[in-house]
Design brief:
single chain, 430 residues, mainly alpha, two-stranded antiparallel sheet, globular, UL36 very large tegument protein
């Protein structure tokens, strides 16, 4: 009989996980972060009582790559993935799996939204932070970005599992895997970051409740009953009236954009009323990818229906659009008189790689939107390091260095000096 052919998937994966953890530094890297921040959750995974989300296993493989090399970790990846998938199939065939997955998806989407709000708040704080506070806030922002990425990955994993268990209400695509790349923050910097003081200016403290501190994703061998979720409350859960249809001029019918927008808002209210938060989030993600000229109208209708929080979520999703699309949405919002939303969208978009920021700035300049390009560059400079900012100019140094230096000057003299030094180190003449 082949070894493990009829092994219990929970025990089999727990044995593997204990072996993996035993080969890496349990005090450093991501393993150290998980063990310090959620020892109970990690213990449950190591004992086979819970199945960790895949991003946790992936992070541990990142630690393995740091200790034994990338080739060793790459060989391990296929085996780890197969065992993990077998465990999830085992868990998801149990009675009540669909309900448990839907509840966990709802909680993870709330975690994702919370992480997005934290990022936006930290970006705002960084705009006026002193140099002393800025370093701590950047550290907080790196962890908030990691929170959001992990929550996003876990939501995609849960959606896929729901699809396999019962079929989705709407097709979704999971995030592609990027093994052995620690999100935003290098793995070796994790202990320093997670031990840092998390107080922002003004004495506000951000709670350490991020997605990375919750390794346990699904019960594997032991499935205790879970508390029933609280009933949804507030206008965004359907307590607002149905959006009134816009009136067209006499003798005419509403245009397709108006009809589509009204139908979307009505569907969103219906989903919120039924507590179907996951489907509501998918709807917002789809709406963020509509033609840019439709979004100002959608914003107006969402606020009319008391769904302002959903507009904030939609803006956050739009911030991850490709550079050209991001610029188009920002332009459409500014042209419709929503300059504040346009600026917020650009500030939220600075979490992307520096090369994409440079591409977006060039697109804006070509479209005659130099002011918006400066807003984007300035926002990047306020939350990222000078070394990262220097990478922005790679696409076209001659065109990008002058506006980047101008944006740095608007931040502070020190910022401009630091950027000039980083550009020289990178081989450019500022």
């Amino acid at each position: 009989m082949a070894a493990g052919q009829h092994a219990d998937p929970a025990r089999e994966f727990a044995d593997y996980l204990r072996g993996l953890v035993g080969r890496i530094d349990q005090d450093g890297g991501w393993c150290g972060v998980f063990l310090r921040r959620d020892p109970d959750g990690m213990r449950a995974c190591l004992q086979g009582r819970e199945a960790p989300p895949w991003d946790v296993v992936e992070a541990l493989l990142h630690d393995l790559a740091a200790a034994y090399g990338r080739e060793t970790a790459t060989r391990e990846l296929t085996h780890a993935r197969a065992l993990h998938q077998r465990l999830l199939r085992h868990v998801d065939t149990r009675p009540g799996a669909r309900e448990r997955l839907a509840e966990r998806l709802d909680l993870m989407l709330k975690e994702q939204h919370y992480a997005a709000e934290r990022q936006a708040e930290l970006v705002e704080l960084l705009q006026s932070a002193s140099p002393f506070d800025a370093e701590r806030l950047r550290l907080d922002l790196a962890w908030a970005q990691d929170d959001h990425e992990r929550a996003t990955a876990r939501a995609a994993e849960l959606r896929m599992r729901l699809h396999q268990v019962a079929g989705p209400a709407r097709q979704t695509v999971p995030r592609p895997e990027a093994p052995f790349c620690a999100p935003r923050q290098a793995a070796e910097a994790a202990p320093r970051a997670e031990d840092a003081t998390q107080e922002a200016s003004g004495g506000h403290r951000f709670a350490r409740r991020g997605a990375r501190y919750a390794p346990g994703g699904e019960e594997a061998s032991v499935m205790p009953p879970t508390a029933a979720p609280a009933a949804p409350r507030g206008a965004r859960y359907g307590q607002a009236p149905e959006p009134a249809a816009r009136t067209a001029p006499p003798g005419t019918a509403p245009g397709p954009d108006v009809r589509s927008t009204t139908a979307t808002v009505a569907q969103l209210i219906s989903l919120r009323s039924a507590g179907r938060t996951g489907e509501a989030h998918v709807l917002l993600c789809e709406a963020a990818r509509r033609p840019p000229e439709q979004l100002p109208l959608l914003a107006e209708e969402l606020f009319r229906a008391g769904l302002g929080a959903d507009w904030a979520t939609l803006l956050w999703e739009a911030a991850s659009l490709p550079p050209a699309d991001l610029v188009a949405v920002a332009d459409a919002l500014a042209a419709a008189g929503r300059s504040e939303d346009s600026g917020r969208l650009l500030r939220q978009g600075v979490g992307r790689p520096a090369s994409e920021i440079g591409e977006a700035a060039l697109v804006m300049a070509d479209a005659g939107r130099r002011g918006q390009a400066e807003v984007l560059l300035e926002a990047f400079l306020r939350v990222r390091t000078p070394e990262e900012a220097a990478r922005i100019v790679a696409a076209d140094p001659d065109r990008l260095i002058p506006p980047l230096l101008k944006a740095a000057e608007s931040v502070s003299g020190n910022c401009r000096r630091d950027l000039s030094h980083a550009l020289r180190v990178a081989g450019y003449r500022p």
